């Protein structure tokens, strides 16, 4: 049994977790920065990086103390090495390097997307490879065939905005706070998803990709028209995104014989999204797995877990591991 400490700092959440290779989360912390960024209506990279400097080391102390584990008992230190806001990535990666150096432990440089991709396996011991993954977060929207640790085949990506980014932009247009996803989901509960006609970009297209920019522009026009209830716009927008997800994922399932459909990333915290994809899996005769909401949005348990999977496969990194703003899986 290996004990892995994980650090996450690629966006606006400072997070630390200690997990075991047999799927126990001994302790974890996630500290968001929503208040710091709220006046600017989005994440300010410079503010985020400075906040990680202030918060992250203290979270390491708290997590080790809560678990009653000394740094020397940890088997490896994992940290997000990208992709993400480079200042924050550098803070987390360098903190992990310092810990690895001090305790003479191996470093595991984790791709944040791999953290999301493998996160379902932390809570679902029956989820084997391969599986088809819809990864929908603030920075990405991809369909991936996950064949093994470090073995990913990308079937589709977005040609413009990420899905979470679309939620955030639509929320801003509706005067809702950042992050927009949870705010839209809450408002959509009182709305009629058929009230506002909105486009479903690329639905039915033979090409595999996603597109959300046109949807944002349509929301902008619907808001400007001033004739629709905000709740109806929110519900109609959410349904349009879901229809895109379902259509594009159905297309990917047609070219993948992976037995299980998995949804992960921040947008997978949305219960309407989860329900729709579960329905698709059922329709297509595939299994379905989705992590609990707290494991969908950014956290360090998924980074520690990806670190545990890589460590078990002998994939460790040197102290010269680079921080990467861009890093496709
Ligand atoms: O995975 P994540 O926490 O960070 C990134 O790696 O980007 O994803 C954050 C994104 C944000 O755009 C946020 O609005 C969206 O996930 N999100 C949601 C929900 N919760 C978070 N989108 C829709 N519904 C939600 N309940
Ligand atoms: Zn993420």
Give a brief rundown of this model.
Helices cover 44% and strands 19% of the residues.
Question: What does this molecule look like?
Answer:
- This protein has 329 residues and is of the alpha/beta class.
- The protein has two domains: 132 residues, ATPase, nucleotide binding domain (Nucleotidyltransferase, domain 5); 162 residues, ATPase, nucleotide binding domain (Nucleotidyltransferase, domain 5, 2-Layer Sandwich), CATH 3.30.420.
- 44% of the residues lie in helices and 19% in strands.
- The strands form two sheets. A five-stranded mixed sheet has the order 3-2-1-4-5, with helices on both faces. A five-stranded mixed sheet has the order 8-7-6-9-10, with helices on both faces.
- Bound molecules: 5'-O-[(R)-(carboxyoxy)(hydroxy)phosphoryl]adenosine and zinc ion.
- 5'-O-[(R)-(carboxyoxy)(hydroxy)phosphoryl]adenosine (KG4) binds next to helix 5 and helix 6.
- The site of zinc ion (ZN) has 6 residues, from helix 4.
- Its cofactor is Fe(2+).
- Keywords: Acyltransferase, Cytoplasm, Iron, Metal-binding, Transferase, tRNA processing.
Please supply descriptive tags for the structure shown above.
329 residues, alpha/beta, Nucleotidyltransferase, domain 5, 2 domains, 5-stranded mixed β-sheet, binds 5'-O-[(R)-(carboxyoxy)(hydroxy)phosphoryl]adenosine, binds zinc ion
List the helices and strands and how they pair.
Blueprint: E1 3-8, E2 13-20, E3 25-32, H1 34-37, H2 45-67, E4 76-82, H3 86-103, E5 107-111, H4 112-123, E6 131-136, E7 141-148, E8 151-156, H5 163-173, H6 180-188, H7 213-225, H8 230-254, E9 260-264, H9 271-283, E10 287-289, H10 293-296, H11 301-312
Parallel strand pairs: 1-4, 4-5, 6-9, 9-10
Antiparallel strand pairs: 1-2, 2-3, 6-7, 7-8
The structure holds 5'-O-[(R)-(carboxyoxy)(hydroxy)phosphoryl]adenosine and zinc ion.
Subcellular location: Cytoplasm
Binding site for substrate: 135-139, 168, 181, 185, 270
Catalytic activity: L-threonylcarbamoyladenylate + adenosine(37) in tRNA = N(6)-L-threonylcarbamoyladenosine(37) in tRNA + AMP + H(+)
């Amino acid at each position: 049994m290996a004990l892995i400490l994980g650090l996450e700092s690629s966006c606006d959440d400072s997070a630390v977790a200690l997990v075991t290779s047999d799927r126990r989360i001994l302790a974890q912390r996630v500290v968001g920065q929503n208040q710091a960024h709220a006046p600017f209506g989005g994440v300010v990279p410079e503010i985020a990086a400075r906040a990680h400097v202030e918060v992250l080391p203290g979270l390491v102390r708290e997590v080790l103390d809560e678990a009653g584990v000394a740094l020397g008992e940890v088997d490896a230190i994992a940290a997000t090495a990208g992709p993400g806001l480079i200042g924050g990535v550098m803070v987390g990666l360098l903190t992990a390097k310092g810990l690895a150096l001090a305790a003479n432990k191996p470093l595991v440089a984790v791709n944040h997307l791999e953290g999301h991709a493998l996160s379902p396996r932390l809570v679902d011991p029956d989820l084997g490879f391969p599986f088809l993954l819809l990864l929908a977060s603030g920075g990405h929207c991809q369909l991936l065939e996950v064949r093994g640790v470090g073995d990913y085949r990308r079937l589709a990506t977005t040609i413009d905005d990420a899905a979470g980014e679309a939620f955030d932009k639509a929320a801003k247009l509706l005067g809702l706070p950042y992050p927009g996803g949870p705010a839209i989901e809450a408002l959509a509960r009182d709305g009629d998803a058929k009230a506002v006609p909105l486009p479903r970009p690329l639905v039915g297209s033979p090409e595999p990709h996603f597109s959300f920019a046109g949807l944002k522009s349509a929301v902008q026009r619907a808001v400007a028209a001033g004739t629709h209830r905000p709740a109806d716009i929110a519900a109609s927008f959410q349904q349009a995104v879901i229809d895109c997800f379902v259509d594009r994922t159905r297309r990917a399932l047609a070219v993948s014989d992976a037995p299980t459909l998995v949804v992960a990333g921040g947008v997978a915290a949305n219960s309407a999204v989860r329900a729709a994809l579960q329905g698709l899996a059922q329709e297509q005769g595939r299994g379905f797995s989705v992590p609990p909401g707290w494991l969908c949005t950014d956290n360090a348990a998924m980074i520690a877990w990806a670190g545990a999977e890589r460590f078990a496969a002998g994939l460790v990194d040197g102290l010269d591991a680079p921080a990467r703003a861009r890093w496709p899986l």
